[in-house]
Amino acid sequence: MIVITSPHISDERMNEIVRHIEQGGVQAHLSRGIDRTVIGIIGKADPHLAEHLRSMQGVENVIKISKSYKLASRDFHPDDTIIDIKGVRIGGDHLVVMGGPCAVETPEQIDEIARLVKAAGGQVLRGGAFKPRTGPYSFQGIGVDGLKWMKDAGDKYGLLTITEVMAPEFVDVCAEYADILQVGTRNMQNFDLLRKLGTIQTPVLLKRGMSATYDEWLNAAEYILAGGNPNVMLCERGIRTFETYTRNTFDLAAIPAVHQLSHLPVIADPSHATGRRELVESMTKASVAAGANGLIIEMHTDPDNSATGDGVQSLFPDQFAKLLKELEQLAPLCGKNFNTGKQPAEAFLVWMK
Hints:
Blueprint (H helix, E strand, L loop, with lengths): L1 E4 L5 H12 L4 E6 L4 E6 L6 H6 L4 E5 L19 E3 L2 E3 L5 E5 L6 H14 L3 E3 L17 H14 L2 E5 L6 H7 L2 E4 L7 H7 L6 E4 L6 H13 L5 E5 L17 H8 L4 E3 L1 H5 L2 H14 L3 E5 L18 H17 L12 H7 L1
Helix pairs in contact: 3-4, 3-11, 3-12, 6-7, 10-11
């Protein structure tokens, strides 16, 4: 249930309505818009509460929400959520690009890739320090040292950092070093992890489970939001189907569909969605046209020979730089503002030499 208040309601009156709601043993979550506030009621409310609220001064309407996810719903929060991380805005009409390798390998590797991401115009450095792999004998990641190397590289080149967190006990250490924590597809319904992420304020990128419906995906986000962390982004990374030519089947329709259902920013992952380097460029552009608020793209300096994971879907630096240059032209046509943080072109030319 949500309560829509009258325009320009006073804080005193708002507090009185909230007190009335919480006296019934339920929680009240406020979503402030430009000229009015929506109060979301979380929990099993008294059947007569809606009637009582409608009669209160300052209440314009009371609407029952049938969706199991309340806080993630656009009914509760009509305006787009925009997450501001050290001046980088994610959501609304902003477009952000996150680039980097599947895994952090050495300090030199992540420093060089960070320099190239910055030179191309990316705003966020991605890299895995803890790697959940299908096989137990595959490379499992560097660990905490990898987090430190990535933070050093991000600080050096003025980039935010994003890394995957795999279990509740790793949340605090990952949040200490990274600006955004990623929940991978296999952990989308790791509810202990989601609850822990709800206790911090570090932004979370929640990847869609490989077989998850939109409702399941948004209910997973609800765990984090209900815990008190409003800084959640959703990531479409492809789903598992009968097709084997691509790594996954990219559900491009998920981007506009979830925008209709939820106010949360939607990020696209064309690298994992396709698993093929030659398809990443076209699916990146399609994602922007579909309304994505950002892209997370794998890039490596030598993906065919030295990458410890996902080399076949990782772009070369020149491909990454060319793609971002084209996004600068495409973004405005799709109603997006792509503010790159480019360094002088010499940074990229050094790598080419």
